[in-house]
Amino acid sequence: LDGLQNQPTDLGHAAAEALNYLITAVQTQSTSLKVQTSKGNYLKSLSIRVEATTLGDGERNMDDLIVRSALWQLDHFVDRTGLLIASRNAVKRTDKTSKVVLLTFDRNMRVKARSRQLDAADEKDMAAIFSSPK
Fold first, then answer.
1. Which of 71, 40, 37, 69 has its CA nearest to residue 51?
2. Predicted local distance difference test score (pLDDT) of residue 125
3. Which helix H or strand E contains 12, and what residues bound it?
4. I want to staple 41 with a disulfide (CB 3.0 to 4.6 A). Which of 37, 71, 120, 134 is the partner?
5. pLDDT (tens digit, 0 to 9) for every residue of the chain, 134 residues total?
6. What pLDDT score was predicted for residue 77?
7. C-alpha distances in angstroms, 53 versus 98, 115, 131?
8. Strand runs (DSSP E) across the chain, as ranges?
9. By the 8 A CB rule, do 23 and 45 touch?
10. Beta-carbon neighbour count of residue 11 at 10 Å?
């Protein structure tokens, strides 16, 4: 989004809006939204977003690195629903609740994630989740 936001097109404006939304969400939704860098560090804000990355064994591109980061989250999942239930935005976990979901518009990345037993969703999946009754 950082690179796209500089384009003087509708896509550039949409990228800037999305980035502003993420910056605000990370600050205001810190109990339920975590941002992890490719090196495993957690960010409390998005004021610094540049990191030197190194692809690991078997990784050929950034998609592989992103899937690896999501898999790390799955392997190291900590159930914090008790904390979330105590907040205003009560969340109830069921057997169908995913621990980690990779959200991407990239169909190939979703296929790659699912092939490694990682739940993946696109914008239609997320819209259905958010529009379903609580």
1. 37
2. 84
3. helix 10-28
4. 37
5. 778 888 899 999 998 998 888 888 877 776 666 777 767 777 777 777 676 777 777 778 888 888 888 888 888 877 766 665 555 555 555 667 788 888 888 999 999 999 999 999 988 887 887 676 65
6. 77
7. 28, 24, 37
8. 35-36, 42-43, 101-103, 119-121
9. yes
10. 11
Read off the DSSP letter of residue 40.
S
- List CB contacts of 62: < 8 A, sequence separation 6 or more: 53
Distance CA 49, CA 26 (A): 13
Predicted confidence at residue 83, as pLDDT, reads 62
Joined together, the tokens standing for residue 16 give: 């800037």
What would you report as the CA-atom Rg of the chain, rounded to the nearest whole angstrom? 16
* Structure tokens that stand for 67 in this block: 């899937």
Helix, strand, coil content of the chain in percent (nearest 5): 45, 5, 50
Pairing of the two strands 42-43 and 35-36:
antiparallel
Cα(13)–Cα(72) distance, integer angstroms: 32
